Amino acid sequence: MEHKQTELTKQQATQFILAKQGLIGSYRFIGKTGAYDYVRQAGCIQFDPVDVCGKNAELTLQSRVKGFKKSMLRELLYEDRKLVDYVDKELSIWPVEDWPYFAPFRERGRKMGDTFEGLRELKEEALAYIRENGPVCSDTLPIEGEIFWHSSMHWSGNWHKKSPAARSVLEQLYTEGELVIHHKNGSRKYYDLAERHIPAAILKADDPCSDEFELVTWRVLRRIGAVGLLWDKSSTAFLGIDLKTDLRKKVLAELAAGNKIKSVTVEGIKTPFYYRTEDGPLMQDIITGNADLKPRMSFMAPLDPLLWDKALILALWDFKYSWEIYTPADKRKYGYYTLPIVYGDRFAGRIEAVQDRDKGALQVKGLWWEPGIRKTKALNSALEKALSGFARFNDCKTVETSFE
Fold this sequence. Notes:
Helices cover 36% and strands 23% of the residues. It is of the alpha+beta class.
């Protein structure tokens, strides 16, 4: 007898994603432990250095981790060493336990570095200096001059330029996994030997994947878990994975055959969707109406896992979001650093908020509600609570509005 595939309403699909993400109902992620647990669930969160009202990774955590403070992420990265900065979906932050899976990235970096004349000697010189003197940045590593160099952190394969030798050799050693980021001072990175900060059992572990296909399969499963529900089509949620159509279908079939993922359809959409089998109980609660869906309001990071696939967001929520940071000012529809607002199971609007460090004030420069959002007492109360929490997150004592 043929199994009838489950069909979700769009609302059930959106509720499942938000519940999985920890953005609706009672808080599932609390404090520093919750921040770590969320990163483990997502696999990776994207890093971006721009700080208007918190950096992207911090914003990702504040939206779903109760009581999150920016210092918690810093501690998890540079004191507890449970997380590491490295490439994945662009530059990312991910659990240090996943280090062995990225052996092919490090090996690729090593091979690329070997093609540059003189780089090997500079690497040995830098490692000897760090071993003797401790963490360095490009300004404190005593290597002079410039080299014509390709950064293997830029995976396009065609990026060459002359750059300071000290910076180049540090980035190369970081790419190869010989160095990790010890700490950051603003945007300045200080590097130290990986062996001083990553346990030997992890650092020297064998690559868990026997071949490239196994690695791609692991990464696809990880990205499905990050979003909650992904469809069988080209998706920016798979950015950083070389995943053409035939390979994607083969990987999804492999994961389904191994009972790692389940498929569902969504009303009005022909493409099948997939979720992790381990999330079956949550899916059942959504379908039967037993899930905790108490509404909350959250301000979302521009590069949040929820927003990785903007075409999916448009198809399920009918919400069109564009990060306008690179849009010329006269062509912006909203603002330079506008954050989507999730309220209940909807994208309710977007907000532009800026941290005024001198005044200790959170300045709300713009607030735009989506069509059909009713400005009720409950909405106003949720907004007031969200703004108060967001101000605390940004070390601001007051909230100011500067728009009509």
